[in-house]
Amino acid sequence: MVLRNIKYALKKIPQPPVTRMYPEKATELSDRFRGLQILNKSKCIGCGICANTCPNNAIRIVKAPISPGSDKKRWFPEIDIGHCLFCGLCIDQCPKDALTSGKEYTEGLVKWKHKDLLICPDKLAREVDLEEGDEK
Ligand code: SF4
Ligand code: SF4
Question: What distance in Å separates the CA atoms of residue 109 and residue 86, rounded to the nearest whole number?
Answer without folding.
Answer: 13
